[in-house]
Design a protein that fits this description.
Strand order of the largest sheet: 1-2
Largest sheet: 2 strands, antiparallel
Distance between the termini: 68 Å
Structural class: mainly alpha
Number of strands: 2
Number of helices: 7
Length: 231
């Protein structure tokens, strides 16, 4: 039983092996891009929205409300990044119910790449919001002695994101394989329903954690807020 798509080599290009993780990742990206283009191709105020456009607007508005609730500010700066993470992970987990499709999130390389993207996004958003000097000061809080510990905290956060997502997918695959061996006619339907639910939860948790990390890096210092409130 192959639990990760990294072990499945589909073809080679100039001696470079292309595994199922790479191919399925591009399939998901093409699917999301194509669906978005089809839904928004007639995006004009004089054309009433159809059900697909309404569904897309509900999803986008739901992501916006969650970002605003966590960050306590406008969702626009984080919407594209966090929304892309959520839709990619959810679509990847959703397609797990398709026979023969191995979700890229079942690969540790994919989950590590997603976690690294969050680690890179944290300083980018932090510097753009607070300036280079203001962002670096966050690593010296509450004192300069905390610098190595704050740096270690950033890397441990990324590692925990990757392992958490990978572990959830892998555990679901192992449990599903065991149940299929016990009762192959009944449990497939149950596992597909549970897969849809867990896929949504995993995508939601990952996006929420990414929002929390970025929001903490872009939050205004408490000292500046207190200075503003002092008459």
């Amino acid at each position: 039983m192959e639990l990760t798509p990294d072990t499945t080599t589909l073809f080679e290009i100039w001696g470079v092996s292309i595994n199922a993780t790479i191919v399925n990742t591009w399939i998901i990206m093409a699917l999301l891009t194509g669906v978005s283009m089809l839904i928004t191709r007639n995006l004009r105020p004089d054309i009433p929205p159809n059900r697909w456009r309404t569904m897309l607007e509900v999803i986008v508005r739901g992501i916006e409300s969650q970002i605003e609730e966590i960050s306590r500010r406008e969702s626009y700066p984080l919407l594209y990044f966090v929304g892309t993470l959520f839709l990619f992970i959810f679509t990847s987990n959703l397609l797990m119910v398709v026979p023969g499709f191995a979700p890229p999130t079942a690969s540790l390389s994919t989950t590590t790449a997603l976690a690294l993207s969050v680690l890179v996004a944290v300083p980018i958003f932090g510097i753009s919001s607070r300036g280079f000097g203001g962002f670096l000061k966050t690593y010296l809080e509450p004192s300069a002695l905390m610098l190595p510990f704050n740096i270690l905290k950033e890397f441990s956060s990324g590692i925990s994101l990757a392992i958490r997502l990978y572990g959830n997918i892998m555990s679901g695959a192992v449990i599903g394989a065991i149940l299929l061996g016990v009762a192959p006619f009944f449990f497939p339907v149950v596992m597909e329903m549970l897969g849809l639910l867990t896929g949504l939860i995993q995508a939601y948790i990952f996006a929420i954690l990414a929002t929390v990390y970025i929001s903490s890096a872009t939050a205004e210092p408490k000292n500046s807020n207190e200075a503003k409130e002092t008459p």
